[in-house]
Amino acid sequence: MKNKLIAASILSANFACLGKEINDVLEAGVDKIHFDVMDNHYVPNLTVGPLVLKSLRKNNIKCEIDIHLMTKKIDNLIINFAKLGANSIIIHPESSKHLDRSISLIKNYGCKAGLALNPSTSLNYLDYLIHKLDLILVMSVNPGFEGQKFLNYIYKKIIQIRKIINKKKKKILLEVDGGINIDNITNIAVSGADVFIIGSTLFKSKLSYSKIIKDIRLKLSKIY
Length: 224
Ligand code: DX5
Ligand code: ZN
Hints:
Blueprint: E1 5-9, H1 18-28, E2 32-38, H2 50-58, E3 65-70, H3 75-83, E4 88-91, H4 99-108, E5 112-117, E6 135-139, H5 154-166, E7 173-177, H6 185-191, E8 195-198, H7 200-203, H8 209-221
Parallel strand pairs: 1-2, 1-8, 2-3, 3-4, 4-5, 5-6, 6-7, 7-8
Helix pairs in contact: 1-8
The chain binds D-xylitol-5-phosphate (DX5) and zinc ion (ZN).
């Protein structure tokens, strides 16, 4: 398995031809697809739900898909997305009254469980939950929109979480979401990220998807 993974956030893709966009970025070399679900309550934006995942799976999109739930209610969506073939489901602590129960629900349906931490969310949530998590997603922008600027104070948070993960025997992926570009990806990687979730830098570039991914891989390869 590769050490550093690239996830393409479809929030920035052309939804008129979503299936093709996904196949194109996979062919360009991304490792997985990041599927942002927003309900206009938890965040001030409205995106896609289970129906879209259902269409993708029906149309032969077999790749790994991570569901990032940015919704006020999550438990029914966890079940729906899991049944439709989600690989990982990532939730925010603010969305659940009983976080342990929601994380267990994800696991019981056979998906990997992730916890997403907004820029201002405390790491304390990890204290009693980390043993159940397969991944931790650090938001490096406030959730809701693509194309925002990476918040520089998040480097410290990435470094702190890396240290916490390293103390555990279990493999837990550290994902970073928001504002990643070709100029800051090296610093983010050096801080300890395993997975780079990339939206506008990939889908809104004038360069081809394969050129962007090649440039990113080159940057990541120079870290060791
Ligand atoms: C923001 C989403 C991100 C976003 C990333 O709420 O969770 O996945 O789409 O897009 P960029 O890379 O443009 O910040
Ligand atoms: Zn996301």
